[in-house]
Amino acid sequence: MEDMLKTDFDALAGRLERDRFAERLLFKLGAKRRARLGIVAFASGLGAAVAASQFTSMVAALAPALAETPPEMDAAGVSPHLLAAFILAGALAATALVLRQDF
Predict the structure, then answer these.
(1) Which residues cross the membrane (predicted)?
(2) How does residue 96 score in pLDDT terms, banded at 50, 70 and 90?
């Protein structure tokens, strides 16, 4: 009797070990993270496409202002191009901080 029970329990334990329950559960739990990543990637791509379509008109509107350097900025050694680069770097850093908190 004891040998029969041991054989049955071993057979059931072997079947449960091959069930891959943990892998399936982790895959399902990771689905929310993957969905969030997909949504953020889609929104980023859409935002980049909109920004790229507006970039030429923005540069055309700002070109005269960037070409003229006020005397105060020229005396301080700060160019408008450098300020524009700092503003873009700040925007990228803020975006990176927001994305870091999501993942």
Answers:
(1) 37-62, 82-99
(2) confident
